[in-house]
Amino acid sequence: MATASLELQGLNFNLSEEHLAVQEAARDFAQNELLPGIVERDNEARFPASQVKRMGELGFLGMMVSPDYGGGGMDTVSYVLAMEEISKIDASASVIMSVNNSLVCYGLEAFGTEAQKQKYLTRLATGETIGAFCLSEPEAGSDATSQSTTAEDKGDYYLVNGTKNWITNGNSSGICLVIAQTDREKKHRGINCLIVEKGTPGFVVGKKEDKMGIRSSDTHSLLFTDVKIPKENRIGDDGFGFKFAMSTLNGGRIGIAAQALGIAAGAYELALKYSQERKSFGKQIFEHQAIQFKLAEMATKIEAARLLVYKAARLKDEHKDYVQAAAMAKLFASEIAMWATTEAVQIHGGYGYVKEFHVERLMRDAKITQIYEGTSEIQKLVIARELIR
Ligand code: CAA
């Protein structure tokens, strides 16, 4: 049955035929449907609308959601395998996928009411619409408890006011999970998460960010002015919003770790191929030890990142504590992504600096993995706290 396996500290990484089929499907989709036109989409910062629709049809937008709500019912290992393959080619598509899967769908499925799941989760899991996770604010990035957006309790509804920043899927999403402060005296225990639909009066999509990388994902600020949200749209008990955000981000970090791994592996594969095509000083550049050492180091560190990503995914699937493992995977994989993509550009020389060869895009895309869903510094904080917990 198992065709690829790997053992680490008693953890069993057997990949089943189903896992390998998911990996292959994601690889084919990335090669055949994401690669064509990718340079133009990146140049124009154009949202990959038809490709996202296809991701929904192929089941990549609700991979881990129960089939009862239109999802694929798959495990986290399947999800990271797909994320890696898609990120090798198109990290913009993979962040759209990651936010929908591991922040929005996961958050709703794990903590939402049955009515919320029926109303919203099925639409998100099938790709009828996509979701956005709205935590960051102009003055609250890493310091996420400092929420300025308010959700005033008005009896049977909340009145939402404020601004969210750097929201992935900001314009293209139909359903947003909005974190806001209800009771400031209770600090983070006075924060709520509300499900807010696009089109709700007072809810406006703001400025589109002109980004260094992941340029074809759409990142916007969102503005809320006296937006009325019924109480039934609150996720969990009153004051659960910050815990909700943190718990959801623990899993989200596995998705971004897999994205970083894919970016690194994609750059490495391109560099390895190029090193066997390009000649200098009368031989393939792979024959030069300077290039061999770079590739050997890249292969080793990428494999180490892969182990951390699989470990975090497997722990989540086995319902074991994965907070530290997810933070370690994200920290390491994102640092490796930045380093390996830079090395891939170096191996390509002048060609690496131009767009047709893809590695400069991967290098630009890699940078964000050290920043979103918790910066590298925040991951170190999370890891350190777990060391003495
Ligand atoms: N899992 C579960 N709960 C957690 C948690 C975790 N990893 N980290 C903290 N908490 C809980 C704590 O238990 C505590 O709850 P109680 O008091 O009820 O026990 C509460 O959250 C507050 O925790 P702290 O006292 O530790 O708060 P802090 O302010 O000292 O630190 C932080 C919190 C870890 C720095 C947090 O603010 C954080 O993770 N910041 C980074 C935010 C982030 O990742 N943003 C990403 C934006 S989303 C995004 O990027 C999506 C996208 O578009 C791609």
TrEMBL record:
Residues 16-128 form the Acyl-CoA dehydrogenase/oxidase N-terminal domain. The keyword Membrane does not apply. Its cofactor is FAD. The keyword Repeat does not apply. One of its GO terms (molecular function) is flavin adenine dinucleotide binding. Residues 132-227 form the Acyl-CoA oxidase/dehydrogenase middle domain. Keywords: FAD, Flavoprotein, Oxidoreductase. SUPFAM superfamilies: Acyl-CoA dehydrogenase C-terminal domain-like, Acyl-CoA dehydrogenase NM domain-like. Residues 241-387 form the Acyl-CoA dehydrogenase/oxidase C-terminal domain. Its EC number is 1.3.8.10. InterPro entries: Acyl-CoA_DH_CS, Acyl-CoA_Oxase/DH_mid-dom, Acyl-CoA_Oxase/DH_mid-dom_sf, AcylCo_DH-like_C, AcylCo_DH/oxidase_C, AcylCoA_DH/ox_N, AcylCoA_DH/ox_N_sf, AcylCoA_DH/oxidase_NM_dom_sf. Pfam families: Acyl-CoA_dh_1, Acyl-CoA_dh_M, Acyl-CoA_dh_N. Belongs to the acyl-CoA dehydrogenase family. This is Cyclohex-1-ene-1-carbonyl-CoA dehydrogenase. It comes from Spirosoma telluris.
